Amino acid sequence: MGTVTTTTEAMRTPTEDGSPAAAAAAEVDLRHHGDAEVRGRDELVDLAVNVRAGTPPAWLKQCLAESLDGLAAYPDGRAARAAVAARHGVAPERVLLTAGAAEAFVLLARALRVRRPVVVHPQFTEPEAALRDAGHVVGRVLLRAEDGFRLDPALVPDDADMVVVGNPTNPTSVLHRADDLARLARPGRVLVVDEAFMDAVPGEREALAGRVDVPGLVVLRSLTKTWGLAGLRIGYVLADPGLVAELSRAQPLWPVSSPALAAAEACVSPRALAEAGHVAHRVAAERRHLVAGLSEVPGVSVVGPAEGPFVLVRVTGGGGVREVLRERGFAVRRGDTFPGLGPEWVRVAVRDRATADRFLSALRGLCP
Predict the structure, then answer these.
(1) Domains located in the chain, CATH noted
(2) Which residue stretches belong to region Disordered (predicted)?
């Protein structure tokens, strides 16, 4: 029988150093993302990309269509910035609109002069890739499967002057406690919390967005996942006004297009927030169904409790199973490009029950 890992207490895990093992771990492909699993393969059922299926909704498409009438004018982000600020109860000076959360990682890497950045893994790899591209030597804190991939603030080196962590974390789907994240803050340190999937958590439990009492806090949000806007590129940063100004100076002129600005304003409206809340509860129910089915498959275990719109799964013979699943029409995200994981790990996006049942049937046929 499969098992659901529910360990909640992380144990001390060393930070990667210059050892041969660490050097080998550093060679993973940090620029491999889920879209590579389905590119050019329209016939595959996409369980590799975490963008919500069936999006964007009709009302949002209409909003984008109407924005096209203003394409002759240069983008003006003031209204969208004010709308995002109001959504989180902060001043507009604490908001920076970006071309997706990925741009924010590049801005942080290029604009801030940090000496010892540390990334908590496994997590989205783009922050580390951006830091390395900017010439930084990046430390890693590797959370362990046997500890449920839970964060222990004591694992982070005291002299780290930038710490990057996801919440809920991609790909583990672990939701860390806000108090544990806040404990990472200290004078002279930039604490970057990637909340790209927080709107998929009912009630946005453990969110730090909108907090102004945590020194050095930088929260990143994405509007591409829940609303199906990955091709439009829109996200934002919430941080101290001084840091926002510093990042803004590193942006080119007019970094966010007019349609993306219209989307940002629409996606933080009361209507959109209410819809996102309903979606989060629906995703939670569909995730429970998927996890229950996975727990009955021999040779399969799920990291839990999962809180994002995806689950991390350990499968006996993972790499081979992933390839056979592709032959049977299902694409899942390989795990071995995430530091701290290996070829036996895959990430599976949460979809509707009918899709999940078809996937589970295919998986059971591989795990007798």
Answers:
(1) 3-54+273-364 (3.90.1150.10), 58-272 (3.40.640.10)
(2) 1-20
